[in-house]
């Protein structure tokens, strides 16, 4: 049976509920239980590893038998395995749910298969409702899960002629206020914000997320990569998120980006926002470690030698890194291109499921 308008609305609500959960090793998942007539009976969301999964959280708010014949609307396929908690497919069956609607399949080999189990037990199951929205929301977690490393967004601002700075190294600001506000909103959604020592020494950036001139509630942890010494009075030492990682920004005196990402993942930092400059951004692209690109292009010419990218490992046109543009936006006078690489290179050490 095709999903109803009430189920679509419930999925939209379930995505809102999912966002209340913490960003951790586990996915953020939301659930809504609907009566056969489409009224909301209960809502739930997952609060992190070891706590109830979203659908079980929602069911727990109903009296015994309260979900009999109901529809469970869940953002991720109900799991089918016993981890720290029991399988959600069994909990839904025990509650007597008649129909399950979910957005995207569970990518896990061990946790997946919930839909099959439910169908085999006679439950009507529909997958793919608001799959694009749910997929975009869970993309960082899916990357982290599949590849065993954080999801990496690489951002830079450039002039129309492809420069990241003027000849003397000044780059504040190439783009206008609206584009910069967009960057700050995205910073607030990230777990870590990364620069190379070149940018740290040239710009002394604060690396905070500021919205309407005020510090955002959620702040990404600042990360500096490179062997040059970070000055004791660098602004990044006063970053409010340092507290979460022992009082100091995370400084990695290395060029081994894979090792840095592995450490960030171990610290539970799954959404990494790389803000440059050109040397570090190019190194991420060269290593195949950029999942999403945000390129802010300003209608200005800078000329000169400071290109927004240097060597990204393309020696000949046949090796060009082709992109898929997912989204463009006009932000004041500037244009944002949101893109991903058409071909993603495998992450060494962990095969894709
Ligand atoms: N337009 C923009 O969006 C934007 C953004 C940021 C900066 N900028 C501008 O860019 C300029 C700074 O550029 P930049 O390229 O020097 O900055 P950068 O990319 O931030 O830093 C480069 C440094 O990062 C370190 N590093 C870490 N991992 C590396 C790796 N895998 N490969 C190579 N180097 C690695 C190296 O430092 P060590 O030698 O210390 O190891 C390298 O010299 C400034 O003018 C700044 O204003 C522009």
TrEMBL record:
Residues annotated to bind Zn(2+): 53, 79, 88
Catalytic residue list: 55 (proton donor)
Keywords: Hydrolase, Metal-binding, Multifunctional enzyme, NADP, Oxidoreductase, Riboflavin biosynthesis, Zinc
KW Zinc (keyword) present: yes
Domain of life assignment: Bacteria
One family name in Pfam for this protein: RibD_C
GO BP annotations, alphabetical order: riboflavin biosynthetic process
CC cofactor note: Binds 1 zinc ion.
Name of this protein: Riboflavin biosynthesis protein RibD
Organism: Microbacterium sediminis
